[in-house]
Fold these 2 entries.
Entry 1:
Amino acid sequence: MTIIISRSLIPSCCSTLASSSRLFTRSLASHAYMAPSPSPSSSSSPTSSLPIEATTTTPTDLTDEQRRLIDSIIRVDQAGELGANWIYRGQKWAMDVKGDKETAKQVEEMWENERHHLTILSHLQTQHRARPTMLYPLWQAMAFGLGASTGLLSKEAAMACTEAVETVIGEHYDDQLKALQPLLNPTDPSSPAPHPSLPLMADILKEFRDDELEHLDTAVEEGAQKAPGHSLLSAIIGVGCKVAIKVCEKV
Ligand SMILES: [Fe+2]
Ligand SMILES: [Fe+2]
């Protein structure tokens, strides 16, 4: 499935993005997980040419280090998407309390994206038998508090929160894509082709990175940089996100 996406801002942190035009198209790799269950006799997904192993099995030929990488990527991203869901939940609650229906609608639209991201990460976590973070309740409480407090402060503060979070997450998805490269393109020509779940995972990370950058765009367009104390707020939230990522890599 292909959709058209409008994007006005490509931050320098994510210079690996393929296009700098405002209007471009991209495929939704994550839809490989939204297809109906295949029949037992089928060898490929009913909606794509992907082999069925891409969405149902995990590679068995990885080194311990490569397995730890996959485990860490999925754990951090699942925790991050959980956090994003609770930030938007907090912002939506604040906008509802304040009666700001227009901002509530914008927040709800971005939240809908995050629900999809979390669903797909949960599929990946099950498929690859990755260990989820043990700090789920902590991330939920902190993320809701961040979303609600910035939302109650002002619409611009809520958008500054989104801008700061999505900047870090966009960079983080890019770092993960770089880390996956040796698994996708082994330097040894005699190495077997990568398990089909790995290029699919990389495509999903790219898709989600681009979604997060759209959220970043929306936040800037909606006045994030007009928030009082914008620089300080961005710095604090950005550092907080980086600390959370580091913790989730291990716990
Ligand atoms: Fe997300
Ligand atoms: Fe997002």
Entry 2:
Amino acid sequence: MKQIAVIVAGIAGLAAARILRQSGFVTTLFEKSRGLGGRMATRRVEDLQFDHGAQYFTAKGPRFSAMVRQWGENGHADEWFDGAFVGSPGIKAPARAMAEGHTIVAGCQVAAIRKEEAGWSIYDPSGLVKTPGNGSFSAVILAVPAPQAAPLAASAGVDLLELAKVRYAPCWALMLAFSERLSLLDDRVKPQDDAIAWIARLQANLTANLTANLAGVARPKPLLSTLRRIGRANISNGPRTWRPANS
Ligand SMILES: Cc1cc2nc3c(=O)[nH]c(=O)nc-3n(C[C@H](O)[C@H](O)[C@H](O)COP(=O)(O)OP(=O)(O)OC[C@H]3O[C@@H](n4cnc5c(N)ncnc54)[C@H](O)[C@@H]3O)c2cc1C
């Protein structure tokens, strides 16, 4: 049976691994974080819980809709509002459900991919990753974001020049907790303000019913108009030193 290495366990890698397994392949996922789900991320602060990456998802195609229905039946997801779904008890729950039964090598930052006699091998910064099947993968799937994919592909002797040029627009996710419920007009606000994409009161989201008095996650809009105001240099300086570009 063919062994395939899937580099990373974000939702894209997990989806690839799932389809490969259905087609009879054996997959091993390599992921640098200890957890799964990548940007489907949850942060816990004392007894508070913030889904600070993806907060909800929609399902448009029939196959994904069927999967979301299954997650709902198994308690991994809930409908939040009008066709928008959240993970239950957090956004990572669907990723965990997708990961069931897969071999996952967590805490492994892939540094290089090399072709050897028996097949493809995966290396981390300290050398060959010791896991069954490593060294004999017949294929490697890269499901990392573009900026990380290009150097990994280059280590395998594949130049993805167009990919290397891709730059992701940065954004900040604010996680704010208040001792009292704020009087927002709505639990989901898309302000007219160009710099803020979205504010959600997480306690209104079924996931976060567990977290009393938690309110407000804002995401500066990662669009060009916002970038003009914030500027890449400013955003990498961090919020303490942020100044609007025109101030
Ligand atoms: C603030 C924010 C809010 C968002 N809100 C929404 C939303 O409301 N709804 C929605 O649908 N989407 C939302 N998104 C987008 C969504 O989260 C992403 O599109 C999606 O999670 C990307 O999945 P992915 O598998 O492609 O990549 P990721 O989730 O980024 O997974 C990539 C994985 O690669 C791993 N990795 C990287 N390099 C290496 C390496 N060298 N070795 C090993 N592992 C490596 C990382 O640890 C990570 O787990 C949001 C994103 C952000 C940042």
